[in-house]
Amino acid sequence: MKKVLALLLALVMCFGVLAGCGEKAPETPAEAPENGADTEGNEDTNALPGKGKKIALVTDKVGTQVFLVMMVDALNEAAEKYGFEATVAECADSAAFEDNMRALVAEGYDLIIGGGWFAGDAINKVATEYPDASNYALIDCEVEAENVKCITYREQEGAYLIGQLAALVTDAESHLYGAVHCFEGPGSWRYRYGYMQGVLSIDPEAKFVFNYINSFTDPAKAKELSIQQYEQGCMFVNSAAAGGDSGTFEAAKEKGFYTSGQDIDLTNPENPYIISCQIKDSYNTVLNLIDEFFSDHWNTENSAWGLAENTIGAVHVTQESKNPVNERLSEEDMAIVKQSAEDIRSGKLDLTNMPTEEEFNAAK
User: Fold this and answer.
1) 147 - beta bridge partners?
2) How much is the pTM?
3) What is the pLDDT of residues 71-122, one digit of tens each?
4) How many CB atoms lie within 10 A of CB 303?
5) Which long-range contacts (CB under 8 A, 24 or more apart) does 90-95 make?
6) Where is 124: in which H helix or E strand?
7) pLDDT tens per residue across span 312-332
8) What separation, in Å, do the N-terminal and C-terminal C-alpha atoms of the chain show?
9) β-strands 303-305, 207-212: how paired?
10) Which of 11, 146, 149, 358 could crosslink 137 through cysteines, CB 3.0-4.6 Å?
């Protein structure tokens, strides 16, 4: 019996040793990291299309100029999206524009964007001298250099909507409509033409008064001129005076006439006389431009953007606001203007082939 137990014990020990000497079972392989992530699951910035590239925005002193602030914000957002190095070069004078652009070319920037018409002369010159050193784009202006992609706006489309709102909110109390602009010229003409056509579509008897502050930052002059227009009989004064808009707004509240502003939503519940603002969205402009740069269809053909590209519009019409619509504008009134916006987007209402100011005046 003892021999049998001893034999069984020996067999058990033998099998135990053999099992311990067997081939180790393979471990379950770790999951391969997804494309664009490292082994810890973090995003791999090397997968971003802009990694290693540099894009610069060259512009006037930004300060509180909303049109420029929006460009800077969009550049930074695009840099996060694509992974490129973003630089903003602010210029104190015309000489600084050229100096900064030459420096950016020397540093190997892949795209140089001129932010505003004040960058036009410099980018035209630098792009002509160094055509293959970088890619070039210019916002809100056109230049002769064929290798500069120029983005302008169909401001007349947004101005048309403002004109309709002007006629509807005043309800033909007066057939005289005013506007205060920065400067007289082709750029201002697009605003003025669209505004007049919008008013006339509602009030065919309309007449117009236009004045200019000859500055981007003169609210005192804008206030003075808008009060003069009110005293002439204008119940609506469209303010296209950049930093001078606040002067028009102040006058509107004091005198009780209606007005509108530019670029962003400047409506204010404490000033119900600001009924809307014409949107000129430089934020979406920069985002659209950089999206094109990283696409397969980048080219240097000039483009004009408007309602269809979501860069032009009007508060309460194409863009919602946290502030209420003025009580003098009914739902029926707003439906008229919103339908016009849709007609412009679809091309049913075509404001692209507008006459020059000289042609317009000659046809009167």
Assistant:
1) none
2) 0.80
3) 999 999 999 999 999 999 999 998 999 999 999 999 999 999 999 989 999 9
4) 15
5) 90/59, 90/60, 90/61, 90/62, 91/58, 91/59, 91/60, 91/61, 91/118, 91/119, 92/61, 94/118, 94/121, 94/122
6) helix 120-129
7) 999 999 999 999 999 999 999
8) 130
9) unpaired
10) 149
